[in-house]
Design a protein that fits this description.
This protein has 339 residues and is α/β, with parallel strands linked by helices. It has one domain: Alpha/Beta hydrolase fold, catalytic domain (Rossmann fold), CATH 3.40.50. The chain is 35% helix and 14% strand. The longest helix has 17 residues. One of its GO terms (molecular function) is triacylglycerol lipase activity. Belongs to the 'GDXG' lipolytic enzyme family. Keywords: Hydrolase. It comes from Pararobbsia alpina.
C-alpha cells in the first residue's frame, strides 16, 4: 500500500529521478560479535585509491601485500589443524590444503578453490586463506588454484588455469563429488567456470559457492552507490578493484560474461550458495546473481551477514561470524555433494 501510494518519482526529462541522500553517520551494529565489531569500526582501506594502470605496478603491490599475508598463515594452519603443500596440475600451480581429520563421508569429495583479489592480488600461498578456512572448518580436502595474473598473463588466463584444474579433477573425482568455491574475483571465476563448462560440454560439479562475486565489472548495481565509502574494504566503485579488473581485462569487453558473469546464461548451473554482507560494495552483484540463478531454476541460497563489508566472512577463523559462514557453506556442500 505504501509503495503504491509513493508512486514513481520522475526527473524533468522523464527518467526516474536520482534520490538525494543527506550525510549521515553509521554506528557499529551492537548485535554482532565484538570481533566483527572491530572489523566494522576499522577505517577505510588506505589502499582503496591505489589506481595502478599496468600489470607490472599491480605485481609490485601484490607482492608487498602477499609478504604480509603469508606471515599469518602458519598460526592459522596450526589452529585449524591443516597442512598445505604446493603441487602442479597440468602445468598449473596449486596448493593442496588438507585437514588432519577428514570424516568418512568427505573422503571421496574434493573442493576446488579459486582465490580472490580483483584478478591481480594474492599470488602464491597468500591466496590460500579461504582454502585453509574451508579445509579446517569444513573438513574437506581442498585444491587451491594459484592462477596466472598480470603481468605474466591477462584475461582469460585465470579462467584457463582454473579450467585445467577442473578438467584434471574430473578424471579423478566423480563430478557429483566435486565442489567449487571462491570469493570476490574468485566468486566470479566460479561462475565463469560454469559458463565455460557449459560451452565445452563438461559435466557440472555437485555444488558451487561463489561468495560476494565480482559478477559485473561495469560498475552496475545499487550497492555500488549505497555502500560507497561504507564498505571499508573496497570503499568505492572507482577504487583499486575496478582499476585492477580493467588491467586484467586488457581491452576486452567488460560485459563479456567471462568477465562479468551476471550477463551469462545460468540455466543448468549446479546448486549454489552465495555469501555477502549488508555493507558490501558488491551486495548488489551478489543479489543479482542470486536472482539470475533463481530465474534459471537453480537451487540457490543467499547468506547476508549484518554489518560486513566485502569478503569479511573469510578473514579470520577466530571471528564467530566467519566460522558461521563456513558452517553454512559446509552444510550446503554436505547436502548437495554426492547426490
Amino acid at each position: 500500500m505504501f509503495a503504491a501510494a509513493q508512486g514513481i518519482a520522475m526527473a524533468d526529462n522523464g527518467a526516474p529521478a536520482t534520490l538525494q541522500v543527506p550525510a549521515k553517520s553509521l554506528p557499529v551494529p551492537t548485535d554482532v560479535s565484538p570481533e566483527l565489531q572491530k572489523l566494522i569500526a576499522a577505517p577505510l582501506n588506505p589502499a582503496w585509491n591505489d589506481l595502478w594502470t599496468t600489470g607490472e605496478q599491480w605485481r609490485t603491490a601484490a607482492n608487498a601485500q602477499a609478504a604480509k599475508v603469508v606471515t599469518t598463515l602458519p598460526a592459522m594452519l596450526k589452529r585449524l589443524h591443516v597442512t598445505e603443500k604446493s603441487e602442479t596440475i597440468d602445468g598449473v600451480k596449486v596448493y593442496e590444503v588438507t585437514p588432519d581429520f577428514i570424516p568418512p563421508e568427505h573422503r571421496d569429495k574434493l573442493l576446488i578453490h579459486v582465490h580472490g583479489g580483483c584478478y591481480e592480488l594474492f599470488p602464491g600461498a597468500s591466496g590460500t586463506t579461504e582454502a585453509i578456512l574451508m579445509a579446517g572448518l569444513g573438513h574437506y580436502k581442498v585444491i587451491s588454484v594459484d592462477y596466472r595474473m598480470p603481468p605474466e598473463a591477462y584475461f582469460p588466463a585465470a579462467l584457463d588455469d582454473a579450467m585445467k584444474v577442473y578438467k584434471a579433477s574430473l578424471t579423478t573425482t566423480d563430478p557429483k563429488n566435486l565442489g567449487v568455491f571462491g570469493t570476490s574475483a574468485g566468486g566470479a571465476l566460479v561462475l565463469e567456470m560454469m559458463l565455460r563448462a557449459k560451452q565445452e560440454g563438461l559435466r557440472m560439479p555437485g555444488a558451487i559457492a561463489p561468495g560476494t562475486p565480482m559478477s559485473d565489472i561495469t560498475k552496475t548495481g545499487d550497492s555500488f552507490y549505497t555502500n560507497e565509502k561504507v564498505d571499508n574494504v573496497l570503499v568505492s566503485r572507482d577504487g583499486f578493484c575496478d582499476a585492477a579488473a580493467v588491467v586484467y581485462a586488457h581491452g576486452h569487453d567488460l560485459k563479456d560474461p567471462l568477465l562479468s558473469p551476471v550477463y551469462g546464461d545460468m540455466h543448468g548451473f549446479p546448486p549454489a550458495i552465495l555469501t555477502t554482507g549488508t555493507r558490501d560494495l558488491l551486495l548488489s552483484n551478489t543479489v543479482r546473481v542470486h536472482r539470475k540463478l533463481r530465474e534459471a531454476g537453480v537451487d540457490a541460497q543467499l547468506e547476508v551477514f549484518e554489518g560486513m563489508s566485502h569478503a569479511q566472512y573469510q578473514v579470520d577463523d577466530r571471528i564467530p561470524e566467519d566460522r558461521e559462514a563456513f558452517g553454512e557453506i559446509t552444510e550446503f556442500f554436505d547436502k548437495h555433494l554426492g547426490h
